[in-house]
Amino acid sequence: AKTRNHALITNYMPTIKxxxxxxxxxxxxxxxxxxxxxxxxxMWSSPELRAWxxxxxxxxxxxxxAISMQNALSWxxxxxxxxxxx
Length: 86
Description:
The chain is mainly α. The protein has 3 helices and no strands.
């Protein structure tokens, strides 16, 4: 059946292959969006728009914290090695 402006799909039964293609497409789309978000180019240069993607903000914070922790552990190891030599 068709409405005035839109085709109406009835009894849609996708195949497993179609569902896999759809899932792959969504995955690629999400990856492209995240790459664009990380680049801070275009619409993603706006802090207000960037804040909309809370999961990306959280991931960025976790990444920064992990790097800070790695740096702290590295300095601690260097300090301990220096003390052992002295």
